[in-house]
Structure prediction request, 310 residues.
Amino acid sequence: MFKKIFSFFLIISLIWLFYWALFVPKESLTLKISKELQKQTKKIDLMVKGVLLTETIGETKIWQIRAVDSQINKDMGIAVLSQVQGIIFSQNKPYLNFDSPLVNWDLKKQLIKINTPTGSDKNYKFSMPFIEWYLKEDKFFSEGDIRFFSKNAEISGNKLTGFLSQKSVFLNEKPIAQFRKGKDTLTLKAESFEIDGGNGNILAKKNCSITMNGLKILADNFVFVRKSNFVKAQGNVVFSYKDIFAKCEKISYLFGSADVILEGNVLATRASNTMRATRLKVNLKSNKIIMEGKTEVYVEDEEMELKNDN
Prediction:
């Protein structure tokens, strides 16, 4: 008896399932998504051709964004700008420009996201995956493959931060800078770079290294002056070149020249020789050491020259 009742309900269930499959209307996930997109499209309150947006404080122009097209959705609080050209000003003069195919502006959060921007200032061109620009905090952020470059230089890193009111930007997460002159390439590495947008100088901090053709300099920080290609390293400085090893307080080097200048409690070794000086030069072409200033130890070596101030 039980088997007959169970069989009856099973047959009824199969008949209902067959009927539902054939006749009851259903809405696919794809259709639901399509309808939602259509709703959002209908909510676009404004479509404008040729948009120009600017921010000024008093008579001082801060920035300008020009877009070919724009769409504004009031419900979502989003403005979408396409084919964008932007200019950042300093003292009412343009100092940085950028292009982007698409910019999303969150009107509620006052957040502008610039997609795949490319641009330049007077020192470098640049490219990156995006820039998030927080208007209230006056700050911006990016991460990924970030690059600054010019004819003889390339700087890269994975994280960028900065403030619009300041020309400097901070490049973190394995930043590397390479400068070329003739056949030589000077490579700079550190935990953090501060790049001055006004002059292109680099201030490197923490675990800094400078390498070139067998030359290696380690330091707590260094400054690279872009215009003159001058490097100054200081703080726990360690120098090595071929068979010369030294420690000192600071090092100066003009990229492209032959002499590296070591200063401040210089302790240098070469083979079995040890020497101390207040100032010491290493000539990279001749591989000679020139000791200057007051010295504590004099070492006779055919590849050393001593200058005693005493």
Observations:
- Residues 16-24, 26-37, 306-310 have pLDDT under 50 and may be disordered.
- The radius of gyration is 32 Å.
- Residues 2-23 form the longest helix (22 residues).
